[in-house]
Structures are given as structure tokens and as C-alpha cells.
Amino acid sequence: MAALLIPRRNRGMRTRLGCLSHKSDSYNDFTAILPDKPNRALKRLSTEEATRWADSFDVLLSHKYGLAAFRAFLKTEFSEENLEFWLACEDFKKTRSATKLASKAQRIFEEFIDVQAPREVNIDFQTRELTRRNVQEPSLSCFDQAQGKVHSLMEKDSYPRFLRSKIYTDLLSQTQRRLS
């Protein structure tokens, strides 16, 4: 109940500070956020599937366990807002109701794009301003430029580090050990 009394702006900071004591880059962190029960999920994940994640960033994002592993990695780097924004945009594009479109656009803007947003993504001023204008009259493509910039940032920066991370290498080792 006390969390409700903390201003919204300070909750993100409290969460980030709380994570400092839990920061880790291991296979165990990945299993904690798997969409299924960890042991069952890892039995379903083949070495071949996990290895394919290195083929392209989009292959990783399209696989539910790849997405979970990448999210766990981003949490260790305190940059999961990039993935959360990208996923929010993907969900936004599926919106069919004009009323919901406007409210979802405003929520995404306030959460990720606006200056000092609780989970502000790193985009340039021009993209931020274009998105601000687009949200005034929202369409399914109003976040396309910002989403593209964030996707590119993750692909060029976070994704290569993920492929070298302990989370990914431990996961590959675990799937290979199962075969032995």
C-alpha cells in the first residue's frame, strides 16, 4: 500500500535502485521470467532454436524464449524500456478501435517518449517532436519512426552484447548438456 503513496516519477528510481542488489547476468535470471515453467520450457528449447537467435535480431524477437532471454539481459543493463517500448508499439499496431487508439497512443507517449517519462527511451529531439505531433492525431503508424530508431539501437548495441552475455552462453550450454 505504501507504494501507492510514492509519486509515479520516484517508483522507477526505487525499482532501479532495488535492482542494483539483484543485478546478475546468469542463466538462472533467465529462467525466472520464462513464459512457461523453467524446466519444461528449457526441455522444449532446442540448441538449434537458441543458436538461430544469433542469425538475426528479428529471429530472436520472434521467438518467445528468445524474447524472454533478451528481456532478462536488458534488465541486467537497466535498458529494458527499449524492448518494452518496441513491444508496446507492436501491440498498438493491432488496435482497431479509434477510441482505444487515442488512449493507447497517449499512454505510450507518456510512458516512453515524453521528456522525463518514467521509462523514457533514448531517441533524438526530431524523432521525439515528430512523435509528439503524430500522437495529436494518432494513426497505427504514429510511432513508426521512434520504434524504428529503438529497434535499430537494440540491434546494433544491445543484441551483439546479448549474444556474448553469460545469459545466452549459459542457455546454449544448458541446451547442449541436455543432449549429452
From TrEMBL:
<dbReference type="InterPro" id="IPR036305">
    <property type="entry name" value="RGS_sf"/>
</dbReference>
<dbReference type="GO" id="GO:0005886">
    <property type="term" value="C:plasma membrane"/>
</dbReference>
<keyword id="KW-0539">Nucleus</keyword>
<dbReference type="InterPro" id="IPR044926">
    <property type="entry name" value="RGS_subdomain_2"/>
</dbReference>
<protein>
    <recommendedName>
        <fullName>Regulator of G-protein signaling 8</fullName>
    </recommendedName>
</protein>
<dbReference type="InterPro" id="IPR034949">
    <property type="entry name" value="RGS_RGS8"/>
</dbReference>
<dbReference type="GO" id="GO:0030425">
    <property type="term" value="C:dendrite"/>
</dbReference>
<dbReference type="GO" id="GO:0009968">
    <property type="term" value="P:negative regulation of signal transduction"/>
</dbReference>
<dbReference type="InterPro" id="IPR024066">
    <property type="entry name" value="RGS_subdom1/3"/>
</dbReference>
<keyword id="KW-0472">Membrane</keyword>
<keyword id="KW-1003">Cell membrane</keyword>
<dbReference type="InterPro" id="IPR016137">
    <property type="entry name" value="RGS"/>
</dbReference>
<dbReference type="GO" id="GO:0005634">
    <property type="term" value="C:nucleus"/>
</dbReference>
<dbReference type="GO" id="GO:0043204">
    <property type="term" value="C:perikaryon"/>
</dbReference>
<keyword id="KW-0966">Cell projection</keyword>
<dbReference type="Pfam" id="PF00615">
    <property type="entry name" value="RGS"/>
</dbReference>
<feature type="domain" description="RGS">
    <location>
        <begin position="56"/>
        <end position="172"/>
    </location>
</feature>
<keyword id="KW-0734">Signal transduction inhibitor</keyword>
